[in-house]
Amino acid sequence: MSEMANMDPEGIDGVRMSWNSWPRTKVEASKCVIPLAACISPIRHHPDIQTLPYAPLRCKTCASPLNCFARVDFTAKIWICPFCFQRNHFPPHYGMISETNLPAELYPQFTTVQYTLPNPSINPQMGVDPNASPALSPSPVFVFVLDTCMIEEEFDYVRSAMKRAIGLLPENALVGFVSFGTQAHVHELGFSDMSKVFVFRGTKEVTKDQVMEQLGLTVPGRRGPAASAAYQQKGMMPNGFPSSGVTRFLLPASDCEFTLNSLLDELQTDQWPVQPGTRASRCTGVALSVAAGLLGACLPGTGARIITLVGGPCTEGPGTIISKDLSDPVRSHKDLDKDAAPYFKKAVKFYDGLAKQLVSQGHVLDVFASALDQVGVAEMKVAVERTGGLAVLAESFGHSVFKDSFKRVFEDGEHSLGLCFNGTLEVNCSKDIKIQGIIGPCTSMEKKGPNVADTVIGEGNTSAWKMCGLDKSTCLTVFFDLSSTDRSNTPGTVNPQLYLQFLTSYQTPEGQSLLRVTTVTRQWVDSTVSSEELVQGFDQETAAVVMGRLASLKMEIEEGFDATRWLDRNLIRLCSKFGDYRKDDPSSFTLNPCFSLFPQFMFNLRRSQFVQVFNNSPDETAYFRMLLNKENITNAAVMLQPSLISYSFNTLPQPALLDVASIAADRILLLDSYFSVVIFHGMTIAQWRNMGYQNQTEHQAFAQLLQAPQDDAQMIIRERFPVPRLVVCDQHGSQARFLLAKLNPSATYNNAHEMAAGSDVIFTDDVSLQVFFEHLQRLAVQS
């Protein structure tokens, strides 16, 4: 694998592209089959990134910051922008610049630099106080929204998880608390003498203004921005909050930890009676509207998260996904295809509206759902994804998938997620490149410009996107198109390099504002002359992930889209363009090593849960797709094509083929399919373990063999968010299905007689990789 050779393929820039050399024209680009796309991890940590204590110098025409690809004339003190070729004069404070005295942003190795921005003034109408200390940046806000419709046991789990989380919050973080069942309750934490609660009816929709009015957060008699400006001037708390109002509901964690803990101890599960044969009435939609309205009273530019803990489906008010009658099952994929899910579209529309409100406020929605049945993640997906929120789906609040993931959100140190707020991403590109859109956790800011394409993929029609929440692992896929004008320039004037620039501004958890500027260059190649350079610049892993993300998106938005056929057709076109073969002779077909892994990725993508939704609920599918769209390429590639490691007595642990032939009686296999990690013991190993050989001193080697995959699995689990599910199983055991479902069925019941002893067969009619290749070769060489 290429990973072994290059441990950090993203480098300092955090950018990987499907093609690293670009064809010159739109026609040539469409013949390349795989779209021109760049996957960028905007705030990924890298030790070589310099943080500069000043603001960037920008081009006066296109506003792109000075970078190491700009041409500099040191005597005339001029730099030429690589994007628009504008000549810019250096300002006086760059007067000392020379070939031997360069600012950091002009060093060729610093293609990515970070600038420290002055903190945005909390309220532009009041002006910035020049004497204000930087510590007064707005504190991050966490509003916990807790479902109370659950059994006592689950409720105890979720309460203890919440108490632990509140203990881990930074001292200056502000905390709010909303609980909901049949009605939504906003707890006034500032009133610690006794518990004081504002109750909202669960059956009817509440607007932001109604929430603020009922909670007493508006100025009586005045409406509109003037009122809120006057309200903001009436005396500020040190953390930039109005002195009354919001601070009754949002308190610093250090002040309200005791109040909250005792409140959680007294809190009961929803006391509303539930008739036999009916579901509990749960008003998730109203509770989220109320939490969003409460945060609407915060000052603009405050980073805030709504952390929702849900234990079942919404059955009341806006966002309802199912009736209260238990004989009515929650919608399945089949229902959605046949338009037989009466609540679905209305609920999605509600969450779409909530997403718009949260994005305009700059706040994030996180969903932690733990239930055996679906809770409505498929409907909430739009709000979670557009605000850059986290989602975790587990079976119970007592399960390690929920408990460990939830703890990770609040942890500091090397395992912290690096949660940042209020991000925006802008993309600048060379003249003939157009931006189609982004797939990933962001929202289009509708910023039009000459480099915006007419066709849209994902969040499009813009060259700037808002990311209310982003973290170290956030990755966005930007799709590019070429302008259709055929260039008849004289060859001498054509620039051989193309440039792309990604500008990410964001707020760190400490409230500091940073701007990261990444400028990358790639080569234009004339693919009509030779496709050799094009082939050498193909990144198989990135291309497979891009195709997976695009197929998932099309499955969601195009009616009757057949993903398997679409992927197959594209793969055949790619192989017939870039393969070496004689027409109509399948045996002559060979693929350049730069493409050789790609068909295998497509084979596994076709079989993955992203394309085959038959065995998953709409909630699970939505959850898997959210993670596929936001994780980096290495992680996303594991989702599409799991990794398998084999452990046996006489060899070191080694990668094994993702094939049923890798199963042997005297082997342990470790499968990492991202969402779950499976330790699979061969038959003989399992028998020896059951006899307790590992506890005998003369069988130390066996004890070590059993321990090795456990240690490696723990390493994977520690590094990953959401925490994967650990499955430990034996050959022929019921849980072995977690491994068998992912393996290539090279041995099925049809050819079981050819099998070696101790290996396994898979009972399936799916084609194997071998058969898939044979068909691919035959179709690719057809004239």
TrEMBL record:
Q: Write down the Gene3D superfamilies for this protein, in alphabetical order.
A: beta-sandwich domain of Sec23/24, Sec23/Sec24 helical domain, Severin, von Willebrand factor, type A domain, Zn-finger domain of Sec23/24
From the Swiss-Prot or TrEMBL record, state where the protein is found: Cytoplasmic vesicle, COPII-coated vesicle membrane; Endoplasmic reticulum membrane
Q: Where is the Sec23/Sec24 beta-sandwich domain?
A: 421-525
Task: Please provide the Gene Ontology terms (biological process) for this protein.
Answer: COPII-coated vesicle cargo loading; intracellular protein transport
What's in the keyword line of the UniProt record?
A: Cytoplasm, Cytoplasmic vesicle, Endoplasmic reticulum, ER-Golgi transport, Membrane, Metal-binding, Protein transport, Transport, Zinc
Family matches, as CDD domains: Sec23_C
Q: Which domain of life is it from?
A: Eukaryota
GO CC terms: COPII vesicle coat; endoplasmic reticulum exit site; endoplasmic reticulum membrane
Q: What does this protein do?
A: Component of the coat protein complex II (COPII) which promotes the formation of transport vesicles from the endoplasmic reticulum (ER). The coat has two main functions, the physical deformation of the endoplasmic reticulum membrane into vesicles and the selection of cargo molecules.
| Protein name in the entry | Protein transport protein SEC23
Its ancestry begins with: Eukaryota, Viridiplantae, Streptophyta, Embryophyta, Tracheophyta
